[in-house]
Amino acid sequence: MKKTGLVYLLAALVLSAAAMLLRSLELSTAIDADGLAVFRPVTAVLIALTLLTAAVLVLCARRSCGGRSAFTEDYRSLGLPGVVWSAACLLAQLYGAWLLFREWKTGSDVLSLILALLAGLAGAGWLCLRLGEWREKVPRASRFLAGALVTLFYGVWLVVYYRDEAPNPALLLTVYGFLALCACTAAACCFTGGVVGRMKPGKTLVFCGLALYLSLVALVRSEPTAFRLFWTVAAVQFAHSAVMLLSPLDKPDPEEAPAEETPEETEAPASQEAEEE
Q1: How many domains are there within the chain?
Q2: Residue 157 CA to chain centroid, in angstroms?
Q3: DSSP code of 197?
């Protein structure tokens, strides 16, 4: 991995950890007894950190992938470990889906049932994508369908989240979750398009970094338990995706690699001198 790629990943993780601490402090001090938001300096610091993170991710992505235009040039599998933790993510998604299904049975609306079904399918979709990246034997149509299910899951979750949290007068409690779901949907859409070579790696890196950062911020004191599981899976999967995009950057581009001289080219002048003599 190039130095710029390493800085990208470390910056995303360090800034995410700092943002989680600030978010926890904000939720402890910036909400009054009536549940209304009260401005505190920590709120401004967290907003500034979020804007700084976005700028750092864009800068690092441009430096890492600025000269690469094809998605598939940079996409590399992490092998069996990626498949293993994607299988663990599938179990987490299924458990979260079961929790949402129980909530639906107690009187929730049909959107909760749809989100529960899509959660399980999205977990299977992530696993299918990782298997396809590892073995390259999964048909492209299947990988495209898997990516579409992941994108649909985050899109429907965005609708459910907005429906549940829009009446909340404290915007501070919901804004980062809303932004995180927008970033997750965009990043999943990038990978779905990447299956057929329709997305540039630089843009994909930016969305993956934002999805990682905002998912971890939204994870702080989130409710219900199913959503905490989904935030965790999103952070793991998009961090994994960013590493896969950054992993081949230590290899020189074919155009920049020096051309090796063939034996015929080196021996040709000697043979010509012998003929002249």
Answers
A1: 1
A2: 16
A3: T
